[in-house]
Specification:
- By secondary structure, the chain is α+β, with helices and mostly antiparallel strands.
- The protein has two domains: 206 residues, H-NOX domain, CATH 3.90.1520.10; 99 residues, Arc Repressor Mutant, subunit A (Orthogonal Bundle).
- 52% of the residues lie in helices and 10% in strands.
- The strands form two sheets. Strands 3-4-7-5-6 form a five-stranded mixed sheet.
- Strand 3 and strand 4 form a beta hairpin.
- The radius of gyration is 20 Å and the shape is globular.
Length: 332
């Protein structure tokens, strides 16, 4: 059984500020989310990722803002900056800052990962929640919106995105997202990512402080070394599955190829970990199906995101997992 996933991101404090501004009492917040508002006066804290997701859900309900993920830092928590963000802020240019996010992002939460890769003359900076049972729309929106937030805060001029991608469906007005990011925004995609042109990656960051960055990197590296060891293989496999699930062509051959190993090697390594590829895939689909239903997605959307060729196949699979149809399960 895996240990509980903990998180220390400062959106927790911004969300608490938001709920308090809507006059929710400490007891009401605790009952709905399991999070204590005393964290507002606590410099170092960790809470379970499940509780943070409940906090996001409650904030979306209270504010009535379906796009709270991108709007939160415009109104709350502007004075909170995680030291990982300070490493990026004190980088030489945008490319260096994003590269450090890919290295130190796991310090925010072990279930989070960032990736920077080149797509012809553009770069894609992606954010992933590598735990299938913790998928939600708010956290990816929040983390990608931070890039624009910090660019504005630092006075970086000319940062225009090429496009934005989100894995989840849009539950509100998509134009709100296009206006916010200043670029086309696509939902139901295979990844959460912002796309930046090659020339913008060399934008210099005002106030670059190499000495401070060195100190912060040393602190971050020391913390990385002390992180508990996790099963990296299963984490890598889950990440590849999540990335390719909606393609409809996912199989062990594809996963093995992306991991740079032979199919038989992957099969053996999974067996050593007490599971098979089909068992792992089924578990991920089952967890995601439950998450997506709770987020209000319809059957067609969920079928597509989980890689089923039609809704009937998904409904049959769902009933075998939960003993009831998706419609009945949602009304429970």
């Amino acid at each position: 059984m895996r240990s509980q996933t903990m998180i220390s991101t400062l959106d927790t404090l911004a969300l608490l500020e938001c709920l308090k501004s809507y006059h929710l009492s400490d007891a009401e917040i605790m009952e709905a989310t399991g999070v204590s508002s005393t964290l507002l006066s606590t410099p170092d804290f960790e809470i379970p990722l499940e509780n943070l997701i409940r906090l996001w859900k409650k904030t979306a309900e209270v504010t009535g803002d379906s796009a709270i993920g991108i709007h939160l830092r415009q109104h709350y928590g502007s004075h909170y900056v995680h030291f990982v963000n300070h490493i990026g802020i004190n980088s030489r240019d945008l490319a260096e800052a994003l590269q450090y996010y890919t290295r130190y992002g796991k310090l925010l939460c072990s279930a989070f990962s960032y990736e920077l890769r080149q797509e012809n003359d553009r770069f894609a900076f992606s954010f992933s929640i590598n735990s299938p049972s913790h998928q939600n729309p708010w956290i990816p929106e929040y983390h990608l919106s931070l890039i624009l937030y910090f660019a504005s805060m630092l006075g970086i001029q000319g940062l225009t995105l090429e496009e934005v991608r989100f894995r989840h469906s849009c539950s509100g007005n998509p134009q709100i997202y296009s206006d916010f990011f200043g670029a086309p925004v696509f939902f139901d995609q295979y990844e959460n990512a912002i796309i930046i042109s090659d020339e913008l990656m060399n934008i210099e960051i005002p106030g670059y402080d190499s000495h401070l960055q060195t100190v912060l990197k040393k602190q971050a590296d020391d913390i990385l070394e002390k992180l508990p060891q996790v099963n990296e293989l299963l984490g890598r496999i889950e990440k590849v599955i999540l990335k390719n699930l909606g393609s409809g062509m996912l199989d062990i051959e594809m996963v093995a190829q992306e991991l740079g190993m032979h199919r038989s090697t992957l099969h053996r390594r999974l067996r050593e970990n007490g599971c098979s590829f089909s068992e792992l895939l089924t578990t991920i689909r089952k967890n995601l199906a439950e998450c997506y239903l709770e987020q209000g997605m319809n059957i067609n959307q969920i079928s597509f995101l989980l890689g089923y060729s039609n809704r009937s196949n998904f409904q049959v699979a769902f009933k075998s997992w939960f003993g009831r149809s998706p419609g009945v399960f949602k009304k429970r």
